[in-house]
Amino acid sequence: MLQTMLPQELMTKAAQRVIKLLPYKKHSDMIKRAWHLYRTGHVYNVTIEDNVLKGKVTDKGHTYEPSFRLKQVAGSSCTCTAVGLCPHNVALFLYAYNQIDAVGNLIRTWKEPATKRKKAESNETQKDVQVKQQTVQQQKLNEKNRSNTSNNANIVDAWWQSFEEKYRRIPLYNITEEEHMRRLVQSFFPTFERPTSKASFLDHLYYVHAALFTFIKLVHIPQKSWGYFAIMQERHVEQFSSTVQQALTNLAKKPRTKSHEQLLYATIPYVRNVLSGELTYFRQILDVYEIIWTTVLTDETYRQEECTWAIEQLNKKQTVEEKIPFIGAASYVSFLLGNDQQAYQLIEPFPYLATGHIVRFMHMSFAKKQIQRGADWFHRLEQNVETYLYSLHISDREWFVQHVLSAYVQYRIATKNEQTERYEQLLQRLLPYSFYTYIDYLFDEQKWKELIELYMLEKTTVDMIHPLHLKAVEQADRSLVLPLYHQTIMYYIEQKNRSAYEQAIKHLRKLRAHYRALKQMPRWETYITKLAEQTKRLRAFQDLLRKGKFI
After folding, report:
1. Final residue of a domain: which of 298, 332, 364?
2. pTM over 0.85
3. 221, 334, 482, 546: which has the fewest C-beta neighbours closer than 10 Å?
4. Does residue 475 form part of some domain?
């Protein structure tokens, strides 16, 4: 995508050069025309190569190909007759600029007098310097007072205060929810430099807090109900969730001191704010919350306190929607504390939550070589499998089945117990949503009779069956496919049109060949006579029977 190829700093500097080259008061007509071309969709096929923007712009029935140099704005060119920057060049730049920030903000800045703009830039720079100095001072203060817990809490509070002040300077007036998110991810968060692997614990912790602040802001922005913007919002949250998780993973690798532990304890109230986000981002919220308590907040005392807090919060809430985040949190921390019974009791009544948690708890137990514990978690899922399946929305049932079957594979590998009968019973209980998986299982196990019975149960015709399956059954026991052909022939006859009748005749020929190979021609004669009698009112079909010499 274009926006991933545009260096934000380069675009910002290019914008400053354009503003200086084209003062708004003197060039307002040209700027307005360029803005109109961009807003009305006349700019397209935009690419960037070697810091040069290229694209096409349609204007008054003609197509022009401007070339905008980001580092040498004055050297830009266009296929129109204008000398220097033209409306097409500016429109091309506005199109690209929209990928990193709102064009409306650029236009408003453009309109401001130069003296006012310089003063604003100077003030913003001073604020950034002040915030940085305050943070450095707080860090130094923390290093000097390692045993003082309150000071450690103060430094974390100072960080978040500085984040909030910086956030307030983001221009958010009259923009969509999706653009709000985009500015957070692409403009706000990148200002916090990612620490190297050799950086101190404190540097990594500061970066984690900046990531958490940004994530919390993201998940508090309501998601559109549907459409392109809703998809983009989900993508922003999903991708940034991975960023937060990576930052936490890096932090967990750093050695800690007693002072650092106090800083982590001061972090807990901010971590809890994650749970208050929009439920539409619940999966990403839990992912971030859980990895914090798995990798960073590992002190058992902290976890005990967190579990108590989460249960207290869910008891205070009135609706299920309000309770769900705290149920998920309390269940997960209970599992980390080894209290599996409480972890299960909390989530058991909620199919969506229970499915994800149980499978994850099973995986985590197996990963720690706690085989019996993991097996117990799978048994809990297994005993609820039908209840959960039919409690879910019909569109989510295939997702559930795949989750369960994948969990069984992990269970089988970890316990080194094949138990094919148990797996088959599970497939049967998950029908019809496990149909294709069950078909493959029966084929692999060469259970030909059960395979044909399952096909017939689903009212499958011969034409719907994989040729490899059909051929294997015929070679193993030709008599097994006879009922399937009978069912297929009746299916086509009931369509009552000539093309369907022709399909029925084709299968009748195959069926006759099977009866002949089995040396059961008397049964064939009885069958075809009865079929001809049943369809005697279907003249077109009767004609085809005669032409095929069936009667």
Report:
1. 298
2. no
3. 546
4. yes
